[in-house]
Amino acid sequence: MGGHVMVSGHGAKTYAAAEDKILLLPEGLHSFAGAEAIMTNGQAGIFHKLLYQDAFGTEFFSNVPCLAYVLRGRETFFDADGEETAVAPGDTLLVPRHHHMVSEFSSETGPLEAVLFFFSDAVITEFLAATSCGVTTAPRSKTALFSGSPSLREYVGALPRVYGRLQASPALVKSKLLELLLLLDLHDRQGQLWRFLAHENSQRARRNIKQVMRAHALADLSVADYARLSGRSVSTFQRDFKRAFGEVPSVWLRRARLDHARDRVIEGKDTIADIALAAGFSDTSHFIKAYKSQFDLTPKQHRLHLA
């Protein structure tokens, strides 16, 4: 997965992201408490996020390139490489497509307000064509610095007020996203935004289905979610999955999660109920039956056998 792009330099620390329910972006924001769509068209769109209560351990995965501009409050992000990034008011965080992060917000100093922008390939392509800066290569971009500007803050802050109650057309969604990129470009004298998006534009192909599944086998995702992560329709995903693994996704996922559960049973640190929940079983008795069917022993028998 590509590295994130952070505006303003903040300290880096290590953090191990928890494996929990993953919020897929932007789709998951439609049902996320505190988030409201300003305008959307497919995966492209603009969302307003306003949180008054603590939100710790929010795990998310970006399906498309995303830009987050913080208006109020502070939010901390931890990526899969163990790097911590604190985002303050006026900071802009760019997140590549297919990127996994965990966010933390404490309401001690007040609410968190941010506007999230999600860019379609069409918007990125049009921006790159309009602003070509003579760069012929598009290396992976890990850092981009945009100092806060009054014009950017005024533009972003006005969006919820101006468009929040309107039914925006696809043409308006595209034009507002393109306008934001062009405004950012005016403050980006080093061309880092252009290089970042050029790299994103080169990453549109389908992802390796084996890499996707092995990286996210334990996530609480549906087959449709896995299809989106891999850049495929559900029918194409199921066909390609069967070709890659020789079985349907539900069977492979069940075995992969049970194999992981067996490792935790052997370690002996967690309760059977906790292991069952982590493996995707809300019913412990159902988990025990599935475990015995797979390994010929119940989890308890397995531990006793190893003792």
From TrEMBL:
One of its GO terms (molecular function) is sequence-specific DNA binding. The keyword Transcription applies. Keywords: DNA-binding, Transcription, Transcription regulation. It holds the Pfam family ExsA_N. Residues 207-305 form the HTH araC/xylS-type domain. InterPro entries: AraC_XylS_family_regulators, ExsA-like_N, Homeodomain-like_sf, HTH_AraC, HTH_AraC-typ_CS, RmlC_Cupin_sf, Tscrpt_reg_AraC-type_HTH. SUPFAM superfamilies: Homeodomain-like, RmlC-like cupins. PANTHER family: HTH-TYPE DNA-BINDING TRANSCRIPTIONAL ACTIVATOR EUTR (PTHR46796:SF12), HTH-TYPE TRANSCRIPTIONAL ACTIVATOR RHAS-RELATED (PTHR46796). This is Transcriptional regulator, AraC family. It comes from Phaeobacter inhibens.
